Amino acid sequence: MATDPSPNDELLKLRDAIDAIDTQVLQLISERARHAHRIGEIKQGNIYRPEREAQVLRRLADDNPGPLPPQAVKTVFREIMSACLALEQPLTVAFLGPVGTFSESAARRHFGAAPTFQPMATIDDVFRAVESGNASYGVVPVENSTEGAVGRTLDMLLSTTQMLCGEVMLRVEQNLMTRDTPLNEIRCVYSHAQSLAQCHEWLNRNLPGVPVVAVASNAEAAIRASEEERAAAIAGQAAADAYGLKILAANIEDDPANTTRFLVLGEHDAGPSGRDKTSIIFTVQNKAGAVVSLLQPLAEEGVSMTKLQSRPVRGFGSGGWQYVFYVDVEGHQHDPAVARALSRIRAEAGSLKVLGSYPVSVNNS
Fold first, then answer.
1. pLDDT-based confidence at 314, cuts 50/70/90?
2. Can you name the residues that pair with 249 across neighbouring β-strands?
3. 269-364: CATH superfamily
4. What Enzyme Commission number(s) appear in the record (predicted)?
5. By C-alpha distance, which of 278, 284, 300 is closest to 352?
6. Staple partner for 341: which of 57, 156, 210, 301, CB 3.0–4.6 Å?
């Protein structure tokens, strides 16, 4: 009479099957890498194609049979593509540092682990690194769902010669961390001003009366907390890992949907991917209804506007105010409807600058 296999026998068979699959996966990844390397030899020049990567990640997420969730599939294949791209064209990516910032997390999410990542002291330095050729690409924050626009990034976009070729939407998870200090013994909390604002209510409830000190970045806050007795920092998991801190309280942001949007800078924008955005800057003539008149072509051409931000131009004082308008629209600048709308806006605007077209963040698509 046959007996059922023991649990240990079944485990051995399953592990043998996994080992065989792993070997097949490795062979296929190696084959993919050889194809990618050959593409680099044929194309030469710029190899990075953000629209192609977005299309691949979306297709794989759509074709995913489970049980892995779509985001896990995207993460796995992002790293495979990152490693393959490094064979074709090693990249250097500048980000707003120091190490352990949300900007670094956004850069690694977008490009994977293979590039060389350069922390920069300021947003201006990120732009300069890309403009000078010292970095292939740069990643900068542009807006937060709680605290609004990052003004310095908007100012730099007005003058830069670089283009936008990508965006990253990063869920911001704020954590309270220390070297080894209990919550009731904390005497100072460091963080970036935006992070302190995002955790205002939690701090009032849990650390009433404890001084909060705004510093240049969350990573700097983590550095200070790692060096000072009875000090804490509010920062992301990456900062805790980088500076050897323990997380006392996780996800302390007041808004659980708190998200920061980052932009990717480069010498080129992206080709059409099928789900794109286009960013522009324009000025208006000083007359009644000028802004409404310039936005009308978007509505008439059926182009959806996803962002409208105004900002004063530097150098117009003593009552001489001048504003520029930052607009994001759905679609690629080469899409017929978007192209017609931009042509009409250009004819009427005081000036128009197309910052670039790029795929919608694959985290949201």
1. low
2. 176
3. ACT domain (3.30.70.260)
4. 4.2.1.51, 5.4.99.5
5. 284
6. 301
